[in-house]
Amino acid sequence: MTPEPSSRLPRKFGHYLLFDRIGAGGMAEIFLARARTELGGQRLVVVKQILPSLAALPQFAEMLIHEAKLAALLDHANVAQVYELGRADDRLFIAMEYVEGFDLNDLLRRCTKEKVAVPIELALAILSDTLRGLDYAHRRVAEDGSPLGVVHRDVSPSNVLVSFDGQVKLCDFGIAHANDLVDKGASPSQTAEALKGKAGYMSPEHARGEPVDARADVFAAGILLWELLSGRRMYRVAEGGPSLLEQAKRAEPRPLVERGLPNESALHAIARKALEPDRDERYPTAAAMLRDIEGYLAGANLVVSPIRLGDWLVASLGSDIVVERRRRQRAAEALELGPPVRLTPVPFEPVPLPRTAIPEPTPTPIATLAGMLSARSAAAPPAQASTSPSAPPPAPLPPPAPVEEPPRSRAKPIVLAALGVLVLVLGSFYALRGP
Predict the structure, then answer these.
(1) Are 293 and 283 in contact (CB under 8 A)?
(2) pTM here?
(3) What are the backbone angles phi and psi of residue 42, rounded to the nearest 5°?
(4) Is 341 helix (H, G, I), strand (E, B) or coil?
(5) How many Å from the N-terminal Cα to the C-terminal Cα in the chain?
(6) CA 380 from centre of chain
(7) Distance CA 418, CA 170 (A)
(8) How many whole angstroms separate alpha carbon 246 and alpha carbon 199?
(9) Which pairs count as long-range contacts for 11-17, CB under 8 Å and 24+ apart, including other chains?
(10) Domain spans of the chain?
(11) Which numeric CATH code is attached to 8-141+148-337?
(12) Other CB atoms closer than 10 Å to residue 49's CB: what's the count?
C-alpha cells in the first residue's frame, strides 16, 4: 500500500525537514527534523505535531498555546528548551530541543532487553537532575516577580531525556495541562487515548481531578524512584483488575523489595515520603526531595557524574540509534538538494579558417644545388680585383670616436710633494746636528 503523503519521510513541514518518526502518543506525533537558521546554519530539533482531533478543540488549542509560552521562558540545564509553537500545513506543532540519546522509558526497555541493570548511583543521578529541573520550573517567576505557577503534570519516563554525554533534561512542561481539558470537549475515545500512559504517573489528587501544585510533580518523581529501585512499573493493569486511573486515585504502591543496596532503608524511606497520598505529608518541594537523595549518595559514598553516566550509556547500550538517524538525515538532505545535475557536453565543431593557396615546393636534387653553387663562385670576381669605373670605391670607415679618460685625482701629486718636502727638512736637520 502506498503511504499517505502526510506520512512519507522525508518531507517538508513549514520551514522544517522531517526525516525520522521517533514516537507517537495520545496527543501528538513526534518527528526528528532539521531546521535552518537565519544565518544559513542548521540544527536538529524535535517537532511534535498535535493530533488534528485535539487541535480542533478551541479550549485545548488555547491552553496549549498558553502553556507553551510559559515553557518557552524556562532556561535551565535540566529542561529541554522550547523553540517555537505554531501552525503549518493546518497542523498545530511545537518545536523543541533535540537531546541525542534515549528517553528514560526507552532506556529501561533496552536494559530489560539486554539484561543490563542501571547502577543505583546512575539511576539516582538521573532522578537528581530531573528534580533540579522541576525545582527550577516551580520557582520560576515572571519579570514583575510574580510566580509563573508552572507545574509539569506529566513527569513520566518518556519525558525524561538522557543524552550520550550524560546530560538529563525534562521536556513537555505544561502540555499535560492542555491535555486535561480534553475531558471537557472530547469524546470518550479521545479521553481514553489522551490518558493512556499518563495515568500511571499521576498523583492521587490529579487523578481525582482536583487542582494540583508542585507536590503533584514530587509524587510523580517518587514513582520514578520506585520503578528505578524495583525495575518494574508501579501501576500495572491486570485482566479484570482496576484501570491505571483507578490505581492512581488510590495511591497504594506495593512495598519495595530489598536489593542489598547500601543503607537501603534510608532510600526506601525517601520513596515512601515522596509517595504519600496526602500531599501535606509529602515532600513540600522538589528541592527537599533532592536534598535527601544527595544526602543518601554522600552517606553511601556513591560518586556520580555526567561523564560516567554517558560512558555507561555508550558502553552498555551503544549508539546505534544515532548512526541510523545520521544515515536518514543524510538521505533527507540529499533528497532536499535533489539529484546531482548532469552536464551534457556540447559538441564542438572547429570553424575552418581562410587559407591562401600556397604551391607545394618542388624538391631540388642535391647534385643540382652543388652545381649551382660552383657556377656562382666561378662567375663572381674577387672584390679587391674589381677595376670597373662605374663602381665607386668603398667609403672609408669613420675614425673611432675618442675615448674620454676620466679626470685624474689631484690628491695623489699633492701628497707626494708633501712627503718630498718632509724628507728634505729631515735631511737638513740631521746634517746640521752632525755626527
Answers:
(1) no
(2) 0.71
(3) -150, 155
(4) coil
(5) 143
(6) 96
(7) 108
(8) 9
(9) 13/47, 13/49, 13/88, 13/89, 13/91, 13/93, 14/86, 14/88, 14/89, 14/93, 15/88, 16/45, 16/47, 16/88, 16/95, 17/332, 17/333, 17/336
(10) 8-141+148-337
(11) 1.10.510.10
(12) 21
In our burial notation (b when 16+ CB lie closer than 10 A, e otherwise), range 163-202 reads bbebbbbbbbbbbbbbbbbbeeebeeebbebbbebbbbbb
Residues classed as catalytic: 154
Q: What is the DSSP letter of 159?
A: G
Cell of 297: 549518595
Block residue for cell numbers 515520603: 273
The three cell numbers locating residue 146: 510574580
Burial label for 31, CB within 10 Å (0-12, 13-18, 19+), is buried
Q: Which three cell numbers stand for residue 183?
A: 475531558
CA dihedral sign, ordered 128, 134, 138, 142: positive
Q: Can you tell me the distance from the alpha carbon of 222 to that of 220, in angstroms, rounded to the nearest whole number?
A: 5
pLDDT along the chain (435 residues), means of 10: 60 90 83 81 89 84 85 93 90 92 91 88 97 97 90 94 95 75 51 61 94 96 96 89 92 92 95 97 98 96 92 82 68 55 47 56 57 58 50 55 55 66 67 58
Pull the grid cell for residue 407: 679626470
At position 103, the amino acid (one-letter code) is: D
